[in-house]
Design goal:
The complex is a heterodimer of chains A (about 250) and B (about 500). With about 250 residues, chain A is an alpha+beta fold. Chain A has one domain. Chain A is built from 8 helices and 12 strands. In chain A, the strands form 4 sheets. In chain A, strands 1-7-6 form a 3-stranded antiparallel beta sheet, covered by helices on one side. A 3-stranded antiparallel beta sheet of chain A has the order 8-2-9, with no helix packed on it. Chain A is globular and about 60 Å long. With about 500 residues, chain B is of the alpha+beta class. The mean pLDDT of chain B is about 95. Chain B has 16 helices and 22 strands. Chain B has a 7-stranded mixed beta sheet with strand order 6-5-15-16-17-14-18. Classes of the chains: A alpha+beta (about 250), B alpha+beta (about 500). The interface between A and B is medium-sized, with 18 and 12 residues.
Chain lengths: ~250, ~500
C-alpha cells in the first residue's frame, strides 16, 4: 500500500471519516516506531523501549519495539491494537504535517490511501457546515506538539550517547523449528556505564529530567518476553522458542 | 643508567606528526616521569603534499591517537578506499582489470579457494571470493551512517590530502596531546666523537638536545643520510620508475561519482594513479625516463585524463626507488621519505610510517645503553619489510603478458627480479601461497594479497600434482555461493560513496 499524502481541504475531504476501531493495520508490518520522550512513562507499560540509528544521519532515535524482524507487528492483530498505550506516531495516522515551500508553519496533511478513511464510520474530519471538526483540530494540535517534542527527544538521545550510556545489542532468537534469527541495529542502556557515572554526570542528567526516562527505558527490556508471547500469538508468525539479549562487546 | 626521556622529531610532514602524535598519545608527556616530545619543522621547506592512499591499519592508528574519524574525513578531504583496481597490467586490453581488495577471501580459515576457482573460472578471482569487486564497480561506500566510527561492512582504508592530514595531526598533537612545537630551521647538526648527535642548532642560535632524534626530513635525510652518512641503496634495477607527473583534476559536476578504490592503470612506460577525493581527483603518471621521454610521458598522462586535462598544470617530481642501508643508527631513527621511497603502487609509504611509529612508541629504548639492541632489532625488522614490499610491487610487473613496449618486456627480465621471489613463484605454480610462505611475525602482505595479484593476473598454475588434496569440492561450491549472497546482502546496505561523504559533511558516525 503506497502513501498518497495531500494537504487537508474541505473541498476534497468534506465527507471523510477516520475509523480506528480496528486499530492501525497500516502498521501491521512495522518492527519499530518512533517514540517521544514524554511518552516513555506510559509506553513502558507495554513496550520494550530501545534506540536505533537514523539511516541518513546516524543519530540515535528513541523507539518502541513492535516486532522481531519478521515484518510482523506483534501488537496489531485482526481485532485491533493489543496494548493499553498506543504510541502517538501510530495513533496520529493517517495525519501528518505537510511543509510547503515558502511557509514556515506546516499544514495538516492526510494519507488519502489510508484504510481508516471512509464515508460512514468514525470521526468526521469536517462539520456539516464545512468548518474543521473538533477531531481534526485535536489531531493538528497533537501533531504540532509532536513536532516540538521531537527536538526535546533528540536532545535526550544525543545526551545519553554523549555520556556513553548507550550500548549496541543483538537479539538472538531460537525458533521452534530449530533455526536461529538475529536482530541487529538496536541499542539499549549500558548498565555498567550507568553504574560508573560520576557525580557531575548524574547531576547534569538529573537537572535535565533525564533520570526517570533513563531508568524506565532500562527497565523496559523486561517487556521482551511479552513481545515474544504476542508475536507467537500472531497467526502467520514462525514461533520463537527463546530470545536472548546479547550486548555487543566494545573494543 | 641513562634513561631515554626526551625525543626531538625533525620535520613536520605526515611522517613527523604521526610519530609525534603516537608517542604523545601513548606516553605521559607532562609531569613526573614524563617523556618530552618536541617537533621542529622549517617554516621554509615545503612538504611533498600529494593525494594519497592508506591501509586499513590507519583506522587503528587514528583511534590510538584519539582522532574522530568523521572529523578526520572532513578536515583532510578524505574518502574511503576499498583496495586497488589494476587496469591493463596483464594484457593491456580495455577489459583487462582486476581488484586487490582489503577483504580476505571467503572461508579462508576453512579452505583455500584458489585451486577450485582455477578449475572453473566463471568470473574474476576477487569477484568469486570476496564482495568488494562488485561493491567498488557499483560505486558504493564500505559502510553507512549507522555503522560505528572505524567500524565497517566491507574492510576499508582512506584516500586523503596529505598536506591537510599533516595540519590536522599537528593541531591535535600540539593542542590536545602535549607535543612541543618549534617552527625554525635546523642550521647545524653537532656530533660527538663516536658519531652520536649531541645537539641541533636552530636558526635563532639555541641548541636543542634530546636522547633520541627522529629524522622526518624527507628525501634530504638530514640526520641519517647527511650527518650519519648512512647510504642509500637504490632499487631501480627492480622497480624502474624514476619520475612522477602529478595533476589535480576537478570533477565535471558536484554529483560525479567518487571511486572507492585507487585505480592504477598500466601505461607504456609505467602506470597512472587515480585517487578520488571529494573535492577533486589526484591523477598522475609514475614512469621510467629510461623507457620514455618526459614530453611523451606528459602526452600519455593528458591522453589518459582526456580533454579535461587541457587547461591543467602538471608537476614533475623526480623519484628514487630505494631505501637507506639501515634506518636506526646510533641515536637517530629515520621515518618516512628520509628512510626510503617506493612507487605508491600499493600505498606502502604511510603504512611504513605507521609501523615505524608503532615500534618507536611501543619499544622506545628505556635507556641509552640498550638503544643499540633496539636499533639492531628495528633495522632487521624494517629491512625485511622493505624487501617484502619490493617483492610484492615487482610481482605486479613480472606477471605481465604485455609486450607492447620495452618497459613491460624489461620487467620480465630475470635480472630485474629478486631471486627469492623467482623461487617462490616456482613453488606457487603448484601450491598456492599460504601461511607457510609468510611466517614472519611482521609480514607486510599476507598470502591473500598474493592470491589477488597472482590470480588477478592469470598466473599460470598447474595443480595436477596436488590433485589428491583438492577433494573439498562441495565446501568450495558452498563458499562461492555464500560469497554471491554476501555481495547481495552488503550491496543492499551500502549507499553510493559520494552520498555517504556528503552526509559526513553534516553528521558524524557514532562511537558505537
Amino acid at each position: 500500500m503506497s502513501n498518497k499524502i495531500v494537504a487537508l481541504s474541505p473541498t476534497h475531504h468534506q465527507a471523510l471519516r477516520v475509523d480506528n476501531s480496528r486499530g492501525y493495520p497500516h502498521a501491521g508490518h512495522l518492527d519499530t516506531t518512533l517514540l517521544l520522550l514524554d511518552e516513555v512513562q506510559k509506553a513502558v507499560a507495554d513496550y520494550c523501549i530501545l534506540f536505533n540509528k537514523d539511516i541518513q544521519t546516524g543519530e540515535f532515535k528513541l523507539i518502541a519495539l513492535l516486532g522481531l524482524g519478521f515484518g510482523i507487528n506483534a501488537f496489531q492483530n485482526t481485532i485491533g491494537w493489543n496494548a493499553t498505550y498506543i504510541p502517538r506516531n501510530i495513533s496520529r495516522y493517517p495525519f501528518l504535517l505537510a511543509w510547503e515551500d515558502g511557509r514556515d508553519r506546516p499544514l495538516l496533511g492526510i494519507d488519502e490511501n489510508a484504510p481508516q478513511l471512509n464515508l460512514n464510520r468514525g470521526h468526521a474530519l469536517f462539520n456539516e457546515d464545512g468548518t474543521t471538526s473538533a477531531f481534526q483540530k485535536q489531531m493538528f494540535e497533537q501533531l504540532n506538539h509532536m513536532n516540538i517534542a521531537q527536538t526535546a527527544t533528540q536532545n535526550f538521545t544525543t545526551g545519553l550517547a554523549e555520556h556513553g550510556l548507550l550500548q549496541a545489542l543483538t537479539l538472538d532468537a531460537k525458533m521452534q523449528d530449530g533455526r536461529t534469527h538475529s536482530i541487529e541495529g538496536l541499542y539499549s542502556i549500558n548498565a555498567t556505564a550507568l553504574e560508573d557515572l560520576g557525580e557531575q554526570a548524574l547531576k547534569s542528567l538529573h537537572a535535565q529530567s533525564y533520570l526517570e526516562p533513563l531508568f524506565l527505558i532500562k527497565a523496559s527490556t523486561a517487556q521482551l518476553p511479552r513481545l515474544v508471547q504476542l508475536h507467537n500469538a500472531q497467526q502467520d508468525a514462525s514461533k520463537i522458542k527463546t530470545l536472548e539479549i546479547h550486548p555487543v562487546e566494545q573494543e | 643508567m641513562k634513561p631515554v626521556k626526551s625525543i626531538i622529531i625533525v620535520g613536520g610532514g605526515t611522517a613527523g606528526w604521526l610519530v609525534a602524535a603516537r608517542l604523545a598519545a601513548f606516553h605521559r608527556v607532562q609531569g613526573e616521569g614524563s617523556l618530552s616530545v618536541t617537533l621542529i619543522e622549517s617554516p621554509n621547506v615545503p612538504t611533498i603534499g600529494v593525494g594519497e592512499g592508506t591501509w586499513p591499519t590507519m583506522r587503528d592508528t587514528l583511534r590510538k591517537i584519539g582522532l574522530s574519524e568523521s572529523e578526520f574525513l572532513r578536515r583532510c578531504d578524505g574518502a574511503f578506499k576499498q583496495g586497488g583496481k589494476f587496469a591493463k597490467w596483464t594484457t593491456g586490453a580495455e577489459d583487462d582489470f582486476y581488484y586487490h581488495p582489503f577483504g580476505a577471501p571467503i572461508g579462508y580459515q576453512k579452505l583455500t579457494l584458489a585451486p577450485y576457482w582455477s578449475a572453473r573460472p566463471d568470473r574474476k578471482f576477487a569477484d568469486a571470493v570476496d564482495i568488494q569487486h562488485q561493491i567498488c564497480e557499483a560505486g558504493l561506500a564500505p559502510k553507512n551512517m549507522t555503522t560505528a566510527e572505524y567500524g565497517y561492512i566491507a574492510n576499508y582504508a582512506y584516500h586523503l590530502d596529505a598536506g591537510k592530514f599533516a595540519t590536522l595531526l599537528k593541531e591535535h598533537a600540539v593542542g590536545k596531546l602535549g607535543v612541543k612545537h618549534i617552527l625554525d630551521d635546523v642550521t647545524t647538526v653537532t656530533q660527538g666523537e663516536d658519531g652520536h648527535i649531541t645537539a641541533l642548532s636552530r636558526a635563532n642560535g639555541e641548541d636543542l638536545k634530546a636522547d633520541l632524534y627522529v629524522d622526518c626530513t624527507g628525501f634530504r635525510s638530514l640526520l641519517l643520510g647527511d650527518a650519519l652518512g648512512i647510504s642509500f641503496k637504490p632499487q631501480d634495477h627492480i622497480l624502474f620508475a624514476d619520475h612522477a607527473l602529478a595533476m589535480q583534476v576537478p570533477y565535471e559536476s558536484d554529483d560525479d561519482p567518487i571511486a572507492c578504490h585507487t585505480i592504477a592503470t598500466g601505461q607504456e612506460a609505467g602506470w597512472t594513479w587515480d585517487i578520488g577525493l571529494p573535492s577533486r581527483r589526484g591523477v598522475g603518471y609514475v614512469y621510467s625516463s629510461n623507457h620514455t621521454s618526459h614530453e611523451r610521458a606528459e602526452d600519455v598522462l593528458r591522453a589518459h585524463i582526456g580533454p579535461q586535462a587541457d587547461h591543467l598544470d602538471v608537476r614533475r617530481i623526480p623519484i628514487r626507488s630505494g631505501h637507506r642501508e639501515k634506518f636506526w643508527e646510533k641515536n637517530v631513527v629515520a621515518v618516512g621519505l628520509s628512510a626510503g621511497f617506493l612507487e605508491p603502487l600499493e600505498a606502502s609509504a604511510l603504512l611504513l610510517v605507521e609501523l615505524a611509529a608503532d615500534m618507536i612508541t611501543e619499544q622506545l629504548p628505556a635507556t641509552k645503553e640498550i638503544m643499540p639492541a633496539i636499533a639492531r632489532k628495528y633495522n632487521e625488522l624494517f629491512l625485511y619489510r622493505w624487501d617484502r614490499i619490493i617483492d610484492f610491487l615487482k610481482l605486479h610487473y613480472m606477471l605481465t603478458k604485455r609486450d607492447d613496449t620495452e618497459f613491460w618486456i624489461d620487467n620480465r627480465n630475470p635480472d630485474s627480479i629478486p631471486d627469492a621471489l623467482k623461487e617462490r613463484l616456482e613453488v606457487w605454480r603448484h601450491l598456492p601461497p599460504s601461511d607457510y610462505d609468510f611466517t614472519g611475525n611482521n609480514e607486510v602482505f599476507s598470502w591473500a594479497s598474493y592470491h589477488y595479484i597472482l590470480y588477478g593476473m592469470d598466473f599460470e598454475t598447474d595443480y595436477s600434482p596436488i590433485k589428491s588434496s583438492l577433494n573439498k569440492e562441495s565446501l568450495a561450491q558452498r563458499l562461492f555461493a555464500a560469497n554471491a549472497r554476501a555481495i547481495q546482502s552488503a550491496m543492499a546496505k551500502l549507499p553510493p560513496h559520494r552520498d555517504l561523504l556528503n552526509q559526513l559533511k553534516h553528521h558524524s558516525f557514532q562511537s558505537i
